[in-house]
Design a protein that fits this description.
single chain; mainly beta; Metal Binding Protein, Guanine Nucleotide Exchange Factor, Chain A; six-stranded antiparallel β-sheet; 9 strands; globular; binds zinc ion
């Protein structure tokens, strides 16, 4: 059984001098206890808790890096970064599997 748990608040850039709106509230479903493979091409660790989206255009503002690689995710794999200040990675875009993930602990959420 899957619980629907949409983001209750606007999600913004984690950089306090930036705070660009990344995702409006009620846009994406929070998922937890994911098992993510180890990063190979970057030393950055990405949280296993966050929001999955199926369409990049759901974001209000987002930037993506050039393609990189990650074990078992294929070649067309990119990191999400802030469109304004380019802080990141905030999550990833996996074009091969058409999945987009935004890590909960890499973003700032407005108070309800
Ligand atoms: Zn930013």
């Amino acid at each position: 059984m899957t619980e629907t748990n949409l983001n209750p608040n606007n999600i913004r850039c984690v950089n306090e001098k930036c705070r660009t709106l990344i995702l409006k509230k009620n846009s994406a479903e929070l998922k937890t206890n994911l098992t993510l493979p180890e990063m190979t091409s970057k030393s950055e660790k990405i949280s296993s808790r966050g929001w999955f989206l199926s369409n990049i255009y759901t974001f209000d503002n987002i930037g993506v890096t050039k393609p990189t690689q990650m074990d078992s995710f294929g070649n067309d794999f990119r990191f999400l970064i802030c469109a304004e200040c380019e802080i990141g990675p905030l999550g990833y875009l996996d074009n091969a599997n058409k999945s987009i993930f935004l890590a909960e602990d890499r973003v700032f959420q407005d108070d309800a």
